[in-house]
Amino acid sequence: MTAPPAASDTLKLIGNTPLVRLAGASEAAGCDIFGKCEFANPGASVKDRAALWIVRDAEERGTLTAGGTIVEGTAGNTGIGLALVANALGYKTVIVMPETQSREKMDTLRALGAELVLVPAAPFSNPGHFVHTSRRLAEETPGAVWANQFDNTANRKAHIESTAPEIWAQMEGRIDGFTCAAGTGGTIAGVGLGLKAFDENVTIALTDPHGAALYSWYAEGELRSEGSSVAEGIGQGRITANLEGAPIDTQFRISDEEGLHWVERILADEGLCLGLSSGINVAGAVALGRKLIAEGRPAPRVATILCDTGFRYLSSLYNADWLRSKGLPVFPWLA
Predict the structure, then answer these.
(1) Rg of the chain over CA atoms, in angstroms?
(2) pTM (2 d.p.)
(3) Which residue is catalytic, options 36, 47, 157, 291?
(4) Is 47 one of the annotated active-site residues of the chain?
(5) Residues with Cβ < 8 Å from 2, sequence gap 6 or more?
């Protein structure tokens, strides 16, 4: 086995993550299911890519200059990615996050030196929403830029230019479908656009958690949510700039229970500790594989995103009392 060459700097460690065939999901789908191991990024999530592209774009446009500050509203992972990139480039970070997110994300951001501002969870229409709060803080802070990950299309450009070509190369151009959930929409739109540029016949599917409105948008043309989800960082109630023009061919709605089933199976059977968004993505990939088989595709190959590490959710997803408090099944080894 040949090791990759030494990286010239630490930011070169972002991207070029491994792709792995998931045995249990492949068996369940009846075809090959692959997971892109985004937890292998320095910040342990897919959001490192968006963070790097957003910062580089701000530098190129001249809005972020030496000694500047990056301000962002985030469920946590983008903030962690931005803090790491900022540290490497000599910037400061101010991160606004809903107080409902995992304690591990808060502790990580503080450990990285970011200024953390916690706000009550609120709907997007509320001026106190974490996105609006971060925008106001950026406007009030001298030398600051607002990362604006939801509507800054440097986010999806990261996936057009890096994630999609990596998946295409790792699968040797033999890919029939791709699916993942949407938070900002950058990953699914960017990977979808990137893969379609290689092959228009690749099916791009949205995997939406309960409580989000995009499933009904792509299925019926109406933004309407049903139910709720405890998954962090995914689920969207509007069409962000990153989602505009996303080439979504089909859509699935996945429950937390289905997502947890795959979190449990992948950890118990395959030794990967993942967050709930990854479990929801794998459930969607299984559904897409089955759909492609039903449509007559021979031996389809489907890829999805393994978004972040489960170590970021030890106080929630991997805590029996927390799971019970949410009415969710407890993993057998925690019961």
Answers:
(1) 19
(2) 0.97
(3) 47
(4) yes
(5) none
CA 202 to chain centre: 20
CB atoms within 10 A of CB 332: 8
Q: Which residues pair with residue 35 across a beta bridge?
A: 20, 304
CB 302 within 8 A of CB 176: yes
Give the span between the Cα atoms of 82 and 306, in whole angstroms. 19
Using a 10 angstrom Cβ sphere, with 0-12 exposed, 13-18 middle and 19 or more buried, the burial of residue 7 is exposed
152 exposed, middle or buried (CB, 10 Å; 0-12, 13-18, 19+)?
A: buried
Nearest to 70 by CA among 154, 145, 150, 134: 145
Whether the Cβ atoms of residue 159 and residue 246 lie closer than 8 Å to each other: no
Phi, psi of 285 (to 5 degrees): -65, -40
Distances (CA, A) of 105 to 102, 115, 166, 308: 6, 13, 28, 11
pLDDT by residue for the chain (335 residues), tens only, comes to 688 899 999 999 999 999 999 999 999 999 999 999 999 999 999 999 999 999 999 999 999 999 999 999 998 999 999 999 999 999 999 999 999 999 999 999 999 999 999 999 999 999 999 999 999 999 999 999 999 999 999 999 999 999 999 999 999 999 999 999 999 999 999 999 999 999 999 999 999 999 999 999 999 999 999 999 999 999 999 999 999 999 999 999 999 999 999 999 999 999 999 999 999 999 999 999 999 999 999 999 999 999 999 999 999 999 999 999 999 999 999 98
